[in-house]
Amino acid sequence: MEQRYATSPDQMPGFGTEELRRRFLVETVFVPGEVNVVYTHHDRIVLGGAVPAGKQLALPTFDELRAEYFLQNREIGIVNVGGTGTVTADGDTYTLPEGACLYVGKGTRDVVFADAEGGAAQFYLFSAPAHTVYPTQLVLRGEGNVRELGDQLTSNRRTLNQYIHEKGIRSCQIVMGVTELHPGSMWNTMPAHTHDRRTECYLYFNVPADARVIHLAGEPSETRHLVIADRQAVISPSWSLHSGVGTAAYSFVWAMAGENQSFDDMDSAPVTGLR
Ligand SMILES: O=C[C@H](O)[C@@H](O)CC(=O)C(=O)O
Ligand SMILES: [Zn+2]
């Protein structure tokens, strides 16, 4: 699996476009017939995709994990951003229509991805180290804790759905959900924030083929941008902004891991202070 070492904010001013993308963007998440993942040393998150493409696709272990099986010392959050599929965890099969989220706890030996009848599933994977076992649990699209955010007048009306969090599906570290922009709204997470206790990753999806998201990264006082296409993921270290504006409406899976799980524990970055 691809490994990416951690980046310090004092390196940011020296990065050109290619270097920024190489460090923070996961350009290809979904590869048909494969489990394709990246290991970032920021909070030791493993993120990527699993695309069964008509077959039974097992979650393998990787040498870099030094574990007998993937979830020996880890937990995983899975969101399906494709057609309906199934995930089988130690013999129990869960059906995930588009937008559903499955948490699979530490200690689960066998995880197998498959398409449901007529479906073409695309499972987004987000895994973090775990210290104890929480039960495997499924939540369907729209059935998490719903928060309505933003305003049409500032082009940031969006519906945020919290799936794995303190008052929802329990986990050791992972906090995960999906945000959907309303038609005509383009800005996510503005006003922006950082959270020095957690790394966060976004997977942008439902981005039209001819549209892009201009994603802001870096410290609030020294911002950079990445131009992101459909079904690409971006890693935001604890010190980095993670906000974006699309050239059309879109959705994204957001997921965090780190020191705490307090969703509202953000360090706000007021618009007037951005540079
Ligand atoms: O720390 C929280 C994350 O940045 C996201 O949940 C924010 C988000 O989905 C949004 O504002 O639309
Ligand atoms: Zn955040």
From TrEMBL:
Pathway(s): Glycan metabolism; pectin degradation; 2-dehydro-3-deoxy-D-gluconate from pectin: step 4/5
TM ranges: none
- Catalytic activity as recorded in UniProt: 5-dehydro-4-deoxy-D-glucuronate = 3-deoxy-D-glycero-2,5-hexodiulosonate
E.C. no: 5.3.1.17
UniProt cofactor(s): Zn(2+)
Keyword field: Isomerase, Metal-binding, Zinc
- Recorded GO MF terms: 4-deoxy-L-threo-5-hexosulose-uronate ketol-isomerase activity
InterPro entries assigned to the protein according to its UniProt record, in alphabetical order = KduI, KduI/IolB_isomerase, KduI_N, RmlC-like_jellyroll, RmlC_Cupin_sf
UniProt cross-references to Gene3D superfamilies, sorted A to Z: Jelly Rolls, pectin degrading enzyme 5-keto 4- deoxyuronate isomerase, domain 1
Q: How is the cofactor bound?
A: Binds 1 zinc ion per subunit.
Q: Which family does it belong to?
A: Belongs to the KduI family.
Q: PANTHER family of this UniProt entry?
A: 4-DEOXY-L-THREO-5-HEXOSULOSE-URONATE KETOL-ISOMERASE
Instruction: State its role.
Output: Catalyzes the isomerization of 5-dehydro-4-deoxy-D-glucuronate to 3-deoxy-D-glycero-2,5-hexodiulosonate.
Task: Supply the name of the protein.
Answer: 4-deoxy-L-threo-5-hexosulose-uronate ketol-isomerase
Supply the source organism for this entry: Kineosporia corallincola
The gene that this protein is the product of is kduI
